Sequence to fold (159 residues):
Amino acid sequence: MGLRTQKRRRRENKTDYKARRIMLMSGLPRVVVRRTNKYFILQAVESVEAQDKVIATVTSKELLKNGWDEKKGGSLKSIAAGYLTGILMAKKLNEGKYIVDLGMARTRKGGRVFAVIAGLVEGGLDVAHNDKVFPSKDRLTGEHAGLKDMITKVKGGLK
Fold:
C-alpha cells in the first residue's frame, strides 16, 4: 500500500475528518466552539446531507452589550468570558440536545473550551459532558481575577 496525500484541510490542521464523520453520523445538531486571538465564536450547526447550515451564532463580543467591562481587564477570551458566552448561546437556543464540536482545539482539564461547555450546560442545553474537566467554580465566576461583580452584572443582563 502506497502513501496517500492528506486532504488539504487536514494538512493545515483545520479538520479532523474522522471526528467530523462520527459527529455527522449521530444526526444531532452541534455547537461549534472556536477561539480566536481575541474572542470565542459559537455556532449552532445542523448538517443536512453533509451540508452545514448555521442556526445561530454568538461571539464573546456580545458580552460588551450585556455589561462586560473590557477596560477593567476583562479579556473576551478568558475562562469567565467563555462561560458567559456558553450561557448566552444556551439562552439563544432555548433547549435541545447538541454535540459539542471543539475542532482541532487542544483540550486540557480546566481549559477555556471546557468553560464554554460549562456555560452551555448551565444554560440548559443537553450536552454530553464530564464535570471533572470543567474549571473550578471560582475560575468560572471570575473570583480569581476580581471579575465577580462584573459576572453577576452580565448574568443578570443576559437576554
